[in-house]
Predict the structure.
Amino acid sequence: MLASIGFRLVRWVAAIALLLALPPSIAAAQTPITTKCESAPLMAAFTVFGETGKMPPDLGKFLADAKLQKIEPYKAFDNVYYVGICWVSAWLITSPHGDVLIDTLYGDYTKMLLDNIRKVGVDPNDIKLVLVTHGHFDHAGGIAELKAALPPTTRFAMTKEGWREGAENAATGRPIPWKMIEPDIVLRDGQTLTAGDISVQAFETPGHTMGTASFAYDVRDGSRTYRAITVGGLGLNAIQGPEQVEAYIASVKRIRAMTYDKTRPIELHLTTHGFSNGLTEAKEKLKSRGPGDPHPLVDIVGFRQQLDALQDGAEKRLIVERAKKAKP
Ligand SMILES: [Zn+2]
């Protein structure tokens, strides 16, 4: 018994030493992805994916497990609900005269999304506008299914390049079969869209993909109104050369500047991937929030730190991509 405990202890010490000797992202990747959608191990696994271009097998399994992906939809603000799954967000902005949805999920998760919308008391038939951040399957993969499920008057919006990249990606049938729809609204940089009583400003923020858009909108918390942004793409997993990384860095700088805007500064980030900024943990604090407590998702310091980290990662990647290009 003692020997067995001793052996286990040695194994633990060895494991911890191994972790300490590794760079933080890799070390954290050794932490198994668990069943509760914790941010840190997912972030680490996705960092490995971004750096190597290879999906860690644990992560692949986790993403495909509908039971583990399911999370209860919740009210994030008086007019905004989270209706996504563990690893990909979908945000529903509501108003008395119609609603706006950001991103479509994919495969069977799009059905989960529609269920989530009903669960929070919204009729999908009241969705007037679907904004799609970019043409990757996890954000755009459910677009055809939603178009079929929602009223014919519901509009869909992406950037010009977003529509193009979506069609190109859907045509590959990877990593799952999915369909794009014909382009509907083509977003222009800085354009304000209105639907129901909602105004959303769209920005072209190329980098994660060249067609990535980000969306700014008001969120209400009692008598307070905050300006939120959903940054359309975060990872460096689809980089095709130094020019794309340069665009990414410029977009991050632009978004950071928006947080210092004199008239309507961005005050918080409603992310497209909850693990990227600890949304999964922050939203738990909503449950125990007392009257007068600060809103746990309003975190401008955390958002700027996230932007700094994104820029830092991209600057390192730029060196790698430039070196690759310089090789004959
Ligand atoms: Zn993407």
